[in-house]
Amino acid sequence: PLLARPLELPGCIYTAIPDDPGVMPSAMFTMRNIIDGTFSIQHGGTLQDANDSVAATFLNASEGYRQTRVLCIPSGSSGLNPKEISLRGVTDSAAAYRIGIRMANENKWRKKLIGFDTGLEGMLPFYGDVVRVHHYLLGLEQATSAISGEMYDVNVDNGYLYVYEDLTSLIGEPDLRVYLRNKDGRPFGPVTCNVIAKGTIDLTGNASGWLQEFGDDHAGPLYCVGKNSDFMTDVKVTLVQPNKDGTVRIEGVEDNPNAYIEGAVPEYSPLELPKGLAPEIKTLSWSIYGDEDNPRLKLSWTGIRADRYLIQSSTDGGSTWTSEETV
Question: What pTM does this model have?
Fold first, then answer.
């Protein structure tokens, strides 16, 4: 994604959604509502792995539409091996840099692609939404231990959650947190807690904003409990595709906040065009006319491969120059 992600919708309809930071997770998926055997993790990049930056070439309006190159280097990269791109229709250095740095960030910080199937539960995300995901495969890759599943009851008075899963391995563990799914599908938390029995979680933090719902016609609230708070992964959705069996395929990229860091526009330089392509000025001549109080300077020249000319003047022997006009 750059500043927006293009999408093809059913019926040959095309649209785009913004790729903005700070999107709050709209749904929560755990081992309970991810269909068994459908979860996948892939690592890849938009550019070749050898490229650590992007060099964007554009026609710079502030330089008389001269071809200009700006180097876009992600945080922590050297910028020694950029991917060369050409931006058509871009005439501003800030816009060129913003597009280039987001492409470079995409390659560096969005290498993990996550996908899974889920059922039709009325709480599906849309393209560009962020969802919070836990799966044991993510835990193995990140070396984080967590257990997720479904509650069958809650005791509001003492803050106990009763779950179907076996939590024996977490009994007595310090620094536990639990994410809870609200009845609208959004994740709540993390809330500090203790695991006090095989299927019992004791909430020690404030969970007053959690909206739970139990009923015979639907599953109980989902949860995910683990150490610290980094055992769930935020995923920005790039695909929501119905399957023939009534399930839905959801795919996305790990939503790393570094992907949105742009920084200031760096110094840029007009490109030196190959000989025979660069603009030329031949037969330059000048003459002075007018009088002492109002002297005038007449310039004439023959221009080649150029349709605009920037005229500058100096009154200090060429140390500084002032733009007079463009003709």
Answer: 0.68
